[in-house]
Write a structure and sequence with these properties.
The chain is α/β, with parallel strands linked by helices. It has 13 helices and 11 strands. The strands form 2 sheets. A 9-stranded mixed sheet has the order 5-4-3-6-7-8-9-10-11, with helices on both faces. A two-stranded antiparallel ribbon has the order 1-2. The structure holds ligand NAX, adenosine-5'-triphosphate and magnesium ion. It catalyses: (6S)-NADHX + ATP = ADP + phosphate + NADH + H(+); (6S)-NADPHX + ATP = ADP + phosphate + NADPH + H(+).
């Protein structure tokens, strides 16, 4: 887990582990804000809307919400995350999301995927807990309508056994677009909502939500993390128009309000984050490489930071020491800042000599 700056020396042995050193390095790296070169680099990146800079104070957000390591803590307190995704085509995306949750500092990370994807994902890492419960249409092609209902109920029952243990679900990385599978995932989302489990919707989860906005509308514990294409489809569906690059701020506010109370993290040259009330941007210099998988890493990271921000909110009895005060927005700011900085460091390290493996 990332260790808070200025922790007392009782944690020094823990803090000497390689993982902690690496994570502390990331935090320290974020302090480079005042660096002149960095400032110059950032000049072209700042998101200006209506003349006002919206840049979030991400370093202080990170400091505030990252939990301290506590020797009395038990496994699970730093976060239990589940990724719902992984099908015939895609096994990388759910892996990147789930392993990122662990690397950020969550204690447990699960993946719910199809049977074929499960063996592959398990072979990437023994650290992930993989549930091969989802089915695609091809695997039940000989089954009649009643049989399909049975399979669907069985999937839901299997998922429900676990659901209330999770601090956050990530729905969509590498999910695919099979109609039967998406129908089951819709039911999973409805159950998560009834149980007030936060959800991060990404990748094909956004394809599902764009076609069934009701799944998230009016749910303040939902975060959508669209890329350029996914954002365009959402705007077209919800606002009924093309993306307006002249009023990014106003459009994002309208989109959040149009869907109803969700938080949106719009990925791009600058990441823009809004809950329909405020807009914040994270323009930390990232990587010029746009290889696949970086968004998956972000969605797993948002899940962990969102959970920590909610814990922070509880610990401060609803009076957090940081603003903005919406924990889903805080989680998005922290994740965006860390992932962009990590991308920048990875590029500095590897340059273009070899392809940047997102998980490295
Ligand atoms: N290794 C893996 O398993 C990966 C799987 N992925 C999964 O693949 C599925 C589909 O996600 P996609 O992001 O490809 O779907 P999208 O529908 O967002 O993107 C589809 C197409 O849009 C193009 N595109 C991207 N940015 C663009 C831009 N700025 N302007 C114009 N065109 C642009 C891409 O080249 C791609 O051909 C999701 O489930 C996702 O999670 C991706 O996350 C990538 C990695
Ligand atoms: N033009 C850009 N310049 C710098 N960083 C960017 C740019 N576009 C996206 N990013 C960053 O890259 C990360 C992934 O965003 P991206 O738009 O590539 O997601 P994605 O298409 O969903 O990725 P994936 O391939 O994992 O599905 C985010 O952290 C985002 O801030
Ligand atoms: Mg994506």
């Amino acid at each position: 887990m990332i260790v808070k700056h200025g922790m007392n020396s009782g944690f020094s042995s823990l803090a000497s582990s390689a993982v902690l050193r690496r994570q502390q390095f990331l935090i320290r790296s974020l302090r480079g804000y005042s660096d002149h070169t960095y400032q110059k680099r950032m000049e072209g990146m700042k998101c200006i809307s209506g003349g006002a800079s919206l840049e979030a104070d991400s370093e202080n957000v990170l400091r505030a919400i990252i939990p301290s390591l506590d020797p009395t803590g038990h496994k699970g307190q730093a976060g239990k995350i589940a990724v719902i995704g992984g099908c015939r085509e895609y096994t990388g995306a759910p892996y990147f999301a789930a392993i990122s949750a662990l690397k950020i500092g969550a204690d447990l990370s699960h993946v719910f995927c199809t049977e074929g994807a499960a063996t592959v994902i398990k072979s990437y890492s023994p650290e992930l807990i993989v549930h091969p419960i989802l089915e695609e249409s091809y695997s039940i092609s000989n089954v009649d309508d009643e049989g399909r209902r049975y399979v669907s109920q069985k999937i839901l029952a299997e998922f429900d056994k676990w659901m209330e243990r999770f601090d956050c679900l990530v729905i969509g990385p590498g999910l695919g677009r099979d109609p039967f599978l998406l129908e089951c995932v819709s039911k999973i989302m409805k159950h998560a909502r009834q149980s007030n489990v936060p959800i991060v919707v990404d990748g094909d989860g956004l394809f599902l939500v764009t076609n069934s906005v009701d799944l998230v509308s009016g749910y303040p514990l939902a975060v959508l993390t669209p890329n350029v294409n996914e954002y365009k489809r959402l705007v077209e569906k919800v606002l009924g128009c093309d993306v307006n690059d002249q009023d990014t701020h106003g459009e994002l506010l309208s989109l959040c309000k149009g869907i109803g109370g969700v938080t949106i993290l719009r990925k791009g040259k600058c990441d823009l984050i809004s809950d329909g009330e405020i807009v914040q941007s994270v323009g930390i210099y990232g990587s010029p490489r746009r290889c696949g998988g970086q968004g998956d890493i972000l969605s797993g990271s948002v899940a962990v930071f969102l959970s920590w921000a909610r814990q922070h909110m509880l610990a401060t009895e609803g009076k957090p020491i940081i603003s903005p005060q919406n924990p889903t927005v805080l989680g998005c700011i922290a994740a965006s800042a860390l992932v962009r900085k990590a991308a920048s460091l990875a590029f500095e390290h590897k340059k273009s000599l070899e392809a940047i493996c997102p998980a490295s």
